[in-house]
Every structure is written in structure tokens, then in C-alpha cells.
Design a protein that fits this description.
Belongs to the cytochrome c oxidase subunit 2 family. With 516 residues, the protein is of the alpha+beta class. The chain is built from 18 helices and 12 strands. The strands form 3 sheets. The protein has a 5-stranded mixed β-sheet with strand order 3-2-1-5-8. The chain has a 5-stranded mixed β-sheet with strand order 4-10-9-6-7.
Length: 516
């Protein structure tokens, strides 16, 4: 009995002295919230240990003190109101004692109000897309562990599968609000040191936040089984001083401007086949090999082979189109927002000439930007026979645009606006503001009786076209046509009992876009 009691006492002593050393235990983390989570965890653990000592102590004592060899005789009583009350009341009080600190911590974890920085985090198979709302910065963050390490051809690095090409950067001492969503399947953004683990669901936005006081590098992973390369989707957060963050923001904005200038200049560049194949291979290994494999063989039934594929050997324009715009209903993403025209041209050239495809096609950045096709590698001076003359393509495009604009600026009836507006709302707005327009305050305000939806029409149009800085409301001026914006504004102003009677026309939206 003495040895048993000593062993049980040791169970309480060891956690308190080794909690920070045992790797199987939680760690305090790097934020106030993560410390609260750790303290809550340890509190509940100690309560469970105390319950275990009492329950097992009583059980072992009863077994030893009232064993048959000592002549113990079982009691004959049955049921006891006092005992029934005690074993109901005591667990209830224990649960209340555990629920109070747990509730306080959970409420604190779910309060992203008064944030200093808002970052949209979008999961995409298999990378993260970060967008800083106030700093006008966005980029993709990809795994940077080499294929040689993954294949076992070279030794694993210190941060194997936990390193990226572009980490998320945030400042110390600032409240950073995260808006989580997804482009495809369910992902989960998890950084243990921040005590942040939030699902990124397609069509929905979840919120989380953190304040980190100590500069450093913090790592995490996608914590939701999101496909074959789920284990290759790391998260790296660089926490720097506010001064260093301001410098980084300026550098990123300058880099974006330089990249835009370089992309524009690349439209007038002509790469040789060797240059295009070298760049194309780099892009392919970084962006495409995860699905289609480094040898282009793909994973039949899931990701098609690129060897002798109809897309690869067929029309060049169709090949460019699927890389630029993706393919609906499949895992093939649109890379127009991820790669430059030069990089897309290079990777298309590489795919059309690697692994024995040998089409001889040499695609240039101008072909991608114009969507016109590719040049033949020999002779390079002559246009490919499958391309339309540039002048013809331009004339057709202008005519189409003029016809489309004239159609968009024509007036619509209230019924037409409401019908189309509901379609646009359900496709673009419902994830944040809900089908009933009630929103999810305070993150996403209600549109029912809102000052925006029942107030000045011009202000309503302006916020839909341009968005609202410092909030999750993005600008739809480049995403929706004038007709679609007019329709959704009309719908919001007349749905859910708003009933303003306003019928916004495309010409009003066009005037707002033009700054008239």
C-alpha cells in the first residue's frame, strides 16, 4: 500500500517538473492565448489526475481492506439517496469548475475585434495564398523542400517538409486577424505556437487571430486531410519587429511593381528554345510535378499523364488556355494569377518538348498574353500555320467588346435585375452575408436595414465596386460586369424587407467605375 501511494504521488509530481521537457505534452507556445490554452490543459490534467488518485485509491483500498481472506462480508444494503445525490452533485461541480476557465479561453480565442492587420489565408491544393488587405500585398507560399530530399536521393534538411519559398510575415505586438477560406477542398491552417488551428472551407470564411511578442520563425502544417500531397503543405510565419515589417512591406510593394514591369517587358522578349526549356523545367518542378510527377507520367485515374497527351500534342492555344484558366470540375488550377506570362510560356514549351513529346513548339510570353498560340521552333522567323493573323484577331476582339458593352449598358426591368441579382448574390456574397442577408457580426455586417443598403445608392455601388479598406469587403469592379454589379446592388436594396424600390442600371455602375 505504501508503494502504491508513493507511485500515485509521483504521478502528480512528474508533470509539474517535466511538463516543459516531455515532447508529448503541449508547449506554452509564443502568444498569450497559447499560454492560456497550455494553462487550461494543465489544469484539466491535474484535475483528472486527482480524480484518478481518489477513484483508484478508493478502489485499491476496498480491494485490500475488504478482501475475502480477511473475512470481509459484503454489505446487504441496496440504494442510498445520499450516495445518489453525492455522485451526481460532485461530478456536476467538477464540470462547472472545468467549464468556467475553458469558456473564458474559448471566448478569447474567438475574438478577432480591434485587429491591426487583416490577412486572408486561402488554402489551395497544395499551397497557401496570403493576401494583406491593408498593405495591398499578396503571394503564394509553396513547399521549398527539394524533390531530391523527398525522393531520398539526398539527406533530409533540418526543416524537412516544413520550409517554404515565401513565408508569411507579421509584426510583433500587433493583433493580426486571419480570414480563412479555400479554393478547392477543406484545408486547416495550424500553427501550434500560436494556438491557431482553423479550417479553411470552400465558400465560407472562418476567423482567427494572434498577437506574437517575440520575433522568430514559427512553423505549422495543414491539419486537414486535403489530398495526396496533404503532407507537403507547410506553413512558415516570420515574426519581425514593426520597423522591420514596414521595410518588408515596402520591399514587397517595390518587388510587385518590378515584377509587373518585367512581365510587361517580357511580352517583347523572344526566348530561345534552350532558355525556354530551362525556365520551363524549373517552373514545372516547382508547380506541376506534385500532380503530374517529375517524369510527366501523372497518376492515372487522378492526374493524367502528359506524355503523348492530346492536350500536349494538340492545339497550342488549347494547351495555353488550360494552364491559364484551369479546367472546371478537376484539380487543374488556373495559373494566370500564380505565374507570369513568361513562366506560363516556358512551362507550356517544356511540356510540349519533354519526355519524348518533341513537338518543336516554342511558346513566347506574347502568345500567352494575347492567347494567340505559339511560334514554331524552326524557322522561328515565320508565324505558326495554326495562328490567326494578329490584325484579324484584334478586329474581332474589339467588335466583341463593343457589342458586350452596349448590351451591358442597356436598361433592365426590376424583375430582370432582381432575378440576376439573386444569382450573383448567391454565387459571390452569400458566404459572408448569408442567404438571409443577416451576415455574421461583427466580421460580416448584416445587410438587412443596413445604412449601406437603404442609404445612398452611389455609396452602395462604390463599396461593391471598390471594396472597403481594412475589412473583408473586397472590390468587385474587376470581377463582375456592370450589369452584374447593378443587379446585385438592386437585389440587396430590395430583398429581406429593405424594399427601397431602387432599380440600379448598368450605366450607373459604368459611371462609377469611370469616376464620373
Amino acid at each position: 500500500m505504501t508503494r502504491i501511494l508513493c507511485w500515485l504521488a509521483a504521478m502528480l509530481v512528474v508533470p509539474s517538473t517535466m511538463a516543459n521537457e516531455v515532447p508529448l505534452n503541449l508547449t506554452p507556445g509564443a502568444t498569450e492565448i497559447s499560454q492560456q490554452v497550455y494553462d487550461l490543459h494543465m489544469t484539466i490534467f491535474y484535475i483528472c489526475c486527482a480524480i484518478g488518485v481518489i477513484v483508484f485509491g478508493a478502489m485499491f483500498y476496498s480491494m485490500l481492506a475488504h478482501r475475502k481472506s480477511k473475512g470481509a462480508v459484503a454489505a446487504t444494503f441496496h440504494e442510498s439517496t445520499k450516495v445518489e445525490i453525492l455522485w451526481t452533485l460532485i461530478p456536476f461541480l467538477i464540470l462547472i469548475g472545468m467549464a468556467i476557465p475553458a469558456t473564458k479561453t474559448l471566448i478569447a480565442m474567438e475574438d478577432p475585434s480591434n485587429s491591426d492587420i487583416t490577412i486572408q489565408v486561402t488554402g489551395s491544393q497544395w499551397k497557401w495564398h496570403y493576401k494583406y488587405f491593408d498593405q495591398d500585398i499578396e503571394f503564394f507560399s509553396l513547399l521549398s523542400t527539394t524533390q531530391e530530399q523527398i525522393a531520398g536521393a539526398e539527406a533530409k534538411g533540418e526543416h524537412y517538409l516544413l520550409e517554404v519559398d515565401k513565408p508569411l510575415v507579421i509584426p510583433t505586438g500587433k493583433k493580426v486577424r486571419f480570414l480563412m477560406t479555400s479554393d478547392d477542398v477543406i484545408h486547416s491552417w495550424w500553427v501550434p505556437a500560436f494556438a491557431v488551428k482553423k479550417d479553411a472551407n470552400p465558400g465560407f470564411i472562418n476567423e482567427a487571430w494572434t498577437i506574437v511578442d517575440e520575433p522568430g520563425t514559427y512553423r505549422g502544417q495543414c491539419a486537414e486531410l486535403c489530398g495526396k500531397d496533404h503532407g507537403f503543405m507547410p506553413i512558415v510565419v516570420e515574426v519581425v519587429t514593426p520597423e522591420a515589417f514596414d521595410v518588408w512591406v515596402a520591399e514587397q510593394q517595390q518587388a510587385a511593381a518590378d515584377a509587373a514591369a518585367e512581365a510587361a517587358a517580357s511580352l517583347n522578349q523572344t526566348l530561345t528554345m534552350e532558355e525556354s526549356m530551362t525556365l520551363g523545367e524549373q517552373v514545372y518542378i516547382a508547380r506541376c510535378a506534385a500532380c503530374h510527377q517529375p517524369n510527366g507520367a501523372g497518376l492515372p485515374g487522378v492526374f493524367p499523364s502528359l506524355k503523348k497527351s492530346p492536350y500536349i500534342l494538340g492545339d497550342v492555344a488549347a494547351h495555353i488556355d488550360i494552364v491559364v484558366n484551369g479546367q472546371a470540375g478537376t484539380a487543374m488550377q488556373a495559373f494566370s494569377g500564380q505565374l507570369t506570362a513568361k513562366e506560363i510560356a516556358a512551362v507550356v514549351t517544356y511540356e510540349r518538348n519533354a519526355w519524348g513529346n518533341d513537338t518543336g513548339d516554342l511558346v513566347q510570353a506574347a502568345d500567352v498574353a494575347g492567347g494567340s498560340g505559339a511560334e514554331e521552333s524552326a524557322p522561328q522567323e515565320q508565324p505558326a500555320t495554326n495562328l490567326k493573323p494578329v490584325t484579324e484577331a484584334v478586329v474581332v476582339t474589339v467588335e466583341d467588346v463593343v457589342e458586350e458593352v452596349e448590351e451591358q449598358l442597356s436598361d433592365l426591368s426590376m424583375d430582370e435585375l432582381m432575378s440576376k441579382g439573386e444569382q450573383v448574390y448567391m454565387a459571390q456574397c452569400v458566404a459572408c452575408h448569408q442567404p438571409t442577408g443577416q451576415g455574421m457580426p461583427p466580421a460580416f455586417p448584416s445587410l438587412v436595414g443596413s445604412p449601406i443598403t437603404v442609404g445612398d445608392v452611389a455609396a452602395h455601388i462604390d463599396i461593391v465596386v471598390k471594396g472597403k479598406p481594412g475589412s473583408a469587403m473586397m472590390g468587385y469592379g474587376q470581377m463582375l460586369t456592370a450589369t452584374e454589379i447593378a443587379a446585385v446592388v438592386t437585389y440587396e436594396r430590395n430583398a429581406w424587407g429593405n424594399n427601397t424600390g431602387d432599380a440600379v442600371q448598368p450605366s450607373q455602375v459604368h459611371a462609377a467605375k469611370s469616376g464620373q
